[in-house]
Amino acid sequence: MAELLYNVDDGVATMTLNRPDRRNAITYTLLTELQNALTSAAGDEAVRVVVLTGAGGNFSVGRDQSGDRSTRVVRGDSPQEDRTRLLDVSRVIPTLVQLPKPTVAVIRGGCAGAGLSLALACDLRYAGADAMFNTAFLGAGMSGDMGMAWLLTRALGPSKARELMLLPGRIKADRAASIGLIHEVVAEGKLQSGTAEIVQRLSDSAPLAVRGAKLNLDSALSRPLSEFLIDEADRLIACAYSEDVEEARSAFLEKRVPHFTGR
Question: How far is CA 82 from the centre of its chain?
Fold first, then answer.
C-alpha cells in the first residue's frame, strides 16, 4: 500500500499521508514519496494548489519510533548513516516552503513532532475542532528535526517558539489558532467543505502573481529592504506584462470572473 496518496483534480493536487493504522506516523518511505510528489506538482502546469492532509482521523503524530526499524529515518546503524538519511528526507521541508504554488494543510486529530513540521511548512493551516498539536521532541529525549525550531520561530516569533519547544504538551485547536499555530479552526463536519472554498480561491488566482507573492513573503524574512524592493519590482513588472493582467482588466470591465492561465 502506498504510504502517500497523490491525486490531481481541477487544479488541486491532494497529498494524503496514508498510514491511518499508525496515525500516519512518518517513515523514510513516506517522506521520500512526499518529496517526489511535491517535485511532480511543482513542475505540473495543471496544478495550481497543493493540499496536504492525513488519512483517517489524524494528520500525523510524528516519526514512527515503534514500527519496523528498517522503516525509520534514525535507525541506529551509525551516526553517519543516520545523519545522511535525516538530511536526505529533511529536503522535503524547503521543498514545501519554497514550492512555487500555494500549499494548504488540512488537519484532523493528532499533529505532532515531524508531522507538525510538515504542517508548519505549508502556507496556510486549517484544523478541525478535534485537532491536537504538540512539538513533542523533548518528551522523546530529542532536540528536534525537520526544521521545527526554524518553522516555529517564523510562524510564532522567538518567544512563543521557545515556549512550545522547551515546554512541550498538547495544544487544543482553539489555542493553536489563538497563538497563530494554525489560521483557523473549522467547525465540526465542515473541515472539508470549508477548506475547499479556500483552496478554490487560491486555484482561481493568477499563478504568476501567486508565485511572485510567495517569493516576496520569503524574501521579506531574509533580504534587506533596499534589496527586497528591487526583487519586488522585478516580480511586479513580470506580472504587469503577462496575459493574466490583461485578463484581469478585461474581466473587471466586463463585470465577469477572470480566467487566469499563468501566462
Answer: 25
